[in-house]
Amino acid sequence: MLKGLDIRDILIIDHLELSLRAGLNVLTGETGAGKSILLDSLGFVLGWRGPSDLVRQGAEQGEVSAWFDLPDDHPVLDLLEQHGLPVSQELILRRINGREGRKTAWINDRRVSGELLRKLSEHLVELHGQHDDRGLLNAKGHRNLLDEYGQYGDLKAAVAKAWGEKERARKAVELESEAVTELRREEEFLRHAVAELSALDPKPGEADALDAKRRLMQASTRVRADVSKAHHALGREGAEALLDDAQRWLQEAAAQLNDELDAPLDSLSRVMNDLQDTLNEVEACLDAIGFNPHELETLEERLFAMRGLARKHDVHADALADLAGDLEARLLRLDAGADNLNALRAAQAEAENVYAARAAELQLARSAAAEKLDQAMALELAPLKMERAVFETRLTAAAALGGSLASLASLASFAAGVGWRRKARWQRTTKLCSGGGNGGGGGSSAVGELSTRSGAVSSCMVGS
After folding, report:
1. For residue 94, which phi and psi values (nearest 5 degrees)?
2. How far is 345 from 174, CA to CA, in rounded Å?
3. What is the pTM of this model?
4. How many Cβ atoms are within 10 Å of 440's Cβ, its own excluded?
5. Which residues contact 86 (CB under 8 A, 6 or more apart)?
6. DSSP state, 417?
7. Which of these, 265, 301, 439, 463, could form a disulfide with 20 (CB 3.0-4.6 Å)?
């Protein structure tokens, strides 16, 4: 329910605060008094399109606020939650229009877009005018009117679901067909590339590992010479021999002393053990950096082959393994293309059959509703002195859909000077209408109002 409006510097309004109560709220005034400005202001805060020059002359900006009281099950609460806004039964909308035309909007003090305001307005407010009945002449709305009267929403939902599944199946067939066609264009390349990569059989990270090993081999000649010198200096002709001599001499001297040389001998023994461990590690290093020239040549051939293939496919050498997997997958998809297409086409045919069955059920339901509507309208016309009026609902198959869905045209001819009205069933939170007129009519025009979302109304503003 709309509780009130606060308008500042909009058109001729300096400041106006309008409070509304539950029930019927009527605003009256002479032509030009500003009644329509209230609707313009409400439309502005709801994000509707309207006049561009809303700001009052001399003001820097115009501002409109509207506040609503929402029931627990109101659809706006779900919209607020979906857009990450605070959910509250008290809804406050605020929108500002600057002199330069810039517009900013807030919902419960959170900055939002005008598009979101328009989404909320679909569930908050309806606007009705004195010519609402002319909407009946718009054939685009006739099918919705019949569907609303027939009350077969579950069947419509089933048709919509079947249509969506049919379209998804059709799209899947199209995409698979396009993909297979594209793969067939490059089939020769795929088979050659997969054979070439399979023969090389690159492994992830192999190129970098080969490059590092190649660099080590190339530098190993100078490195091995230095390590060999160190091994010689530590071995039997170097430090190891000298330590053996030193140990022998100290042991001979210790035999003639008490225990003065025990500690030095223990230390020397530990040093000789460490020296032996060092010699073993140096020897292992010499074995590791030793290489066969033929091995370097073989390594370089494989590394250069990988780099050449990488340049050919414009990828890094270490990405060849992933490329091989991708190309193999594409080739398998090409080989299985016919089977996949057949399966998808079978699924498409099944979806089309389901849709056709659901659409046929809906068409039958519409035909029954149309006949019922014609009978109900005939009963209403006689008391209104419209015996000569004919109301007929015709269903015609939509050619674009192969006759599986029905479009609808409602034809009504009226005797001169006779009017009619009908009430619908469902309402929104707030209903508004504007404009004068006494509802009279003449000639062959129909008068009165028909609303597809609320009861028939006359010139008024309604707050609930």
Report:
1. -145, 135
2. 10
3. 0.43
4. 8
5. 80, 108, 110
6. T
7. 463
